[in-house]
Amino acid sequence: MQGVDTLILGAGVSGLATAAALGQGHDHLVVERDAQIGGYCKTVVQSGFTWDYSGHFFHFKHPEIEAWLLANMAAQRVRRVHKRAFIHCGARLVDFPFQKNIHQLPQDDFIDCLHGLWEASRAAGPAPSSFREMLIARYGRGIAERFLIPYNEKLYACDLELLDPEAMGRFFPKASFDDVMRQLKTPDNSSYNQTFTYPEGGAIQYVEAIARDVERARILLDEPVTGVDLERRVVTTPRRQLRYRRLVSSVPLPTFLQLCRLPHDEAAFSWNKVLVYNLGFDSKGHEQRHWVYYPQRELSYYRVGYYDNIFDAERMSLYVELGFPRAAQVRPELLLERVLADLRSAGVITTQRLIASHHVVMDPAYVHVTQRGLAETARTLEALRRVGVYSIGRYGAWTYCSIEDNLLQARELVRQLRAEALL
Ligand SMILES: Cc1cc2nc3c(=O)[nH]c(=O)nc-3n(C[C@H](O)[C@H](O)[C@H](O)COP(=O)(O)OP(=O)(O)OC[C@H]3O[C@@H](n4cnc5c(N)ncnc54)[C@H](O)[C@@H]3O)c2cc1C
Fold first, then answer.
1. Alpha-carbon gap, residue 403 to 59, rounded angstroms
2. Residue 73 within a domain
């Protein structure tokens, strides 16, 4: 049986960043189920259109991380784009974030939203116990019921009473009554991703940049892990058994817990899945918009993004995202007609003709952050650490995070292992 010092499961951003941080002198292998690297950060090129698995845009908070990636992708042109994001509100588009731009609504809606926000700012009730309660307590019913609740119900595909008040963490754009008042006079829609970067070759270019610091021979593709023996420290794939000293897994935590048979509370883990259609058309559509949020329950999708407005291209190139509960049977081939009809009714498609399409189901897509899930995640991650297993990444650590967070977490893990002289 082959032995390896550090075995890494998954060649997505987290797995590859761990391998890159370990460095070429360290004895390690990456085992990946898929035939390609990248995980959810893959790019599809079809009929002259460049699409990702879902719109993947980058907003680096750490200049050294961005500098490292750019140095490894010198041949790529990377666009820096000033975000133009909106909410579809019937006949008009409102600037994102909704809660700061209610003055762009028709007067009656504006007054209702503002009054609700004012009341919410004065109320001193108990701390909200769910995401839904938090939305109403912090923003009032007008804002919550017009956008925040229906939009997030479509995205998460669950009852928002189930989610933790902080389910979206720093990704939720906060706005106080004072912020909204200031916004009336001086617009400031700055958010965590006010500008973003995007490579001409799609999001996979960032993955390739990470992989440039990993020896290709150390990445085993097309090799799904089918079992993990925590006691013997052995991983099984259809082709081999591998003995490890330590294991770094980016496999979704609920799947990994089953693979390694660690007793756990299965029902504590909940998530949605997202069906993404990438659609290419023969001519241009709306300009000046990068993505639009759709809270309307009668429309099948929750967000539509325009790659052509990022690339300054001549033909409309869309990604369209639909949220589903974890247990739903998703039939992309049957849903496409409905999605196209909804795009027509919302005015996204007018005269354009569809000439290319692609779809992917991301499962899991968004973790449902709940108190029970948080507790079980913390307990199982700790139990795994005690037997030399480090479960990391958006799905390995079962959290809501960005690609930059994945890179930082992988680096931090390697730093900690070195500091504890475990490497
Ligand atoms: C709809 C959506 C939009 C997003 N948009 C953005 C964005 O704009 N910007 C941003 O920064 N982030 C975005 N993200 C988040 C980003 O996709 C993730 O943070 C990142 O891709 C996670 O990388 P990872 O390596 O942790 O996990 P993954 O990409 O899931 O990689 C895990 C790897 O493990 C492999 N694997 C699974 N099971 C096995 C097995 N049994 N054996 C071997 N290998 C296995 C998988 O094939 C995969 O390659 C978005 C996510 C979603 C769902």
1. 9
2. yes
In this structure, what DSSP letter does residue 102 have? Answer: G
Q: Domain residues for 308?
A: 272-362
Give the distance (Å) from ligand 1 centre to CA of residue 132. 27
Q: How confident is the model at residue 77 (pLDDT cuts 50, 70, 90)?
A: very high
Q: Look at residues 362, 386, 402 and tell me which one is the last residue of a structural domain.
A: 362
Rounded CA gap, 2 and 140, in Å?
60
What is the CA(16)–ligand 1 centre distance, in A?
Answer: 11
Instruction: Determine the 3-state secondary structure of 341 from DSSP.
Output: helix
The CA-atom distances, in angstroms, between 269 and each of 329, 367, 399 are 19, 8, 11
Domains: count for the chain: 3
| 276 Cα nearest atom in ligand 1 | 1
* 191 assigned to some structural domain: no
Which amino acid would we find at residue 53? Y
Q: What is the pTM of this model?
A: 0.95
245-295, pLDDT tens digit by residue?
Answer: 999 999 999 999 999 999 999 999 999 999 999 999 999 999 999 999 999
